[in-house]
Amino acid sequence: MKTEDQTYSDRPVQGLSILGSTGSIGTQTLDVVRRFPCEFRVHALSARSNARLLAQQAKEFRPMCVVIEEPTAAEVLRQLLRGTGIEVLEGREGLCTAATLDDVTTVVAAMVGFAGLESVLAALRAMKKVALANKETLVVAGAIVEQVLAESGGVIIPIDSEHSAIFQCLVGESEKDVEELVLTASGGPFRTRKTSTFASITREEALDHPNWSMGAKISIDSATMMNKGLEVVEARWLFGIDVEHIAVLVHPQSVVHSMVTFVDGSTKAQLGVPDMKVPIQYALSYPDRWPAPNPRLEWSEVHHLDFEKPDVEKFPCLGLAYAALRAGGTAPAVLNAANEAAVSLFLSGRIRFTDIHYLIAQTLESMELGRADTLADLVAIDTEARSFVLEHTRVGAI
């Protein structure tokens, strides 16, 4: 048996571009790279604005280039990397360059939100393997991504724990034999909290997830259960399954990461200790599994596994996501943009927790929904939806 520090000599070294390397998924991806130094060569790293952490990462991994999205942070980054020979790129153009470098074979899409879409499309068109943690890419542009995949030969391997679980359950199975996908949800920090108290939920309470350590935006999405709604939309495009065959179950222990039920009545589930390094490593090593010292389940201590249907009245964001997916067209893009804008407002203290779903619902109801055939169309829709949320907030409609 190979140990974790041995090279899999029959596989070429993977050239990595890690977009969003200073976030939760990005930093854990670099932990995996440290664990398997002979398997990877980091060629590009990116951050939105954290120049100091990005510079530390760059000095350790010596990529060809780094990308900083915020122009104001670019000069700080150049000063920190002076004399290293590492090229500093900026903005959207820089991200697309990092995603399409000739020496890059795998792009880890760990950026948060709509901002990650363009670079993912660029990577797929350049026939890269994309290890996808940016669920918004498929939520906003599922049809476009599907077309690019068919034309380019690019590949997507999911990193999200739920989609990785389904992906693993489907290995060796035929798509026609799938009856239902079941995405599990922890229920977030407010699963048992009384709905009557939701208006007083604080930023700190919403960020305090019981099982997972995540970034701020994804933590709020988990608290509203919009994260699970976005995952339903993503699953439809990743696995080609109709919305009526994608279910959500609340599973507080977060041990069963998701399940697939087949036409003969059998069900496969992927289980494990909540640890994002496992799906990250699997996305990078697939189709192999590499030995690693990740935590193991102590089965004698797993006394019960609980499941319950989600309360969509208590967590209306989940119902909004299902409705947007059924509506199709630009509805999921509007849903995503309104959610990102509303979450940002909540994190900055400008709206209440309960205003998040209200603003999303109002945006979906008020905007004209149709088709979006190009990235430019999606950018325009995204801008319009965000503007609607901001205007709705300013005029005191909440």
The profile of the biggest β sheet is:
7 strands, parallel
Low-confidence stretches: 1-9
Number of helices, counting only DSSP H or I runs of 4 residues or more: 15
Compute the number of strand runs: 11
Strands of the widest sheet, in order across it, are 4-3-2-1-5-6-7
Distance between the termini: 60 Å
Multimeric status of the protein? single chain
Question: How are helices and strands ordered from N to C?
Answer: EHEHEHEHEHEHEHEHHHEEEHHHHH
Mean pLDDT across every amino acid position:
93
The percent of residues in helical segments reads 40-55%
**In percent terms, what proportion of residues is strand?**
5-15%
Could you characterize the architecture of this molecule?
- Residues 1-9 have low confidence and may be disordered.
- The chain starts with 13 loop residues before the first strand and ends with a helix.
- α1 (24-35) links the parallel β1 (14-19) and β2 (40-47).
- It is globular and about 60 Å long.
- The protein is built from 15 helices and 11 strands.
- The strands form 2 sheets. A 7-stranded parallel beta sheet has the order 4-3-2-1-5-6-7, with helices on both faces. The protein has a 4-stranded mixed beta sheet with strand order 9-8-10-11, with helices on one face.
- The chain has 3 domains: 14-158, Rossmann fold; 161-275 and 296-326, no CATH class; 328-398, Rna Polymerase Sigma Factor, Chain: A, CATH 1.10.1740.10.
- It is of the alpha/beta class and 398 residues long.
- The chain has helices at residues 24-35, 51-61, 71-80, 91-99, 117-125, 136-152, 161-170, 203-207, 216-224, 226-239, 277-285, 316-327, 331-347, 355-366, 375-394, and strands spanning 14-19, 40-47, 65-68, 87-90, 106-109, 129-132, 155-158, 178-185, 246-250, 256-262, 267-271.
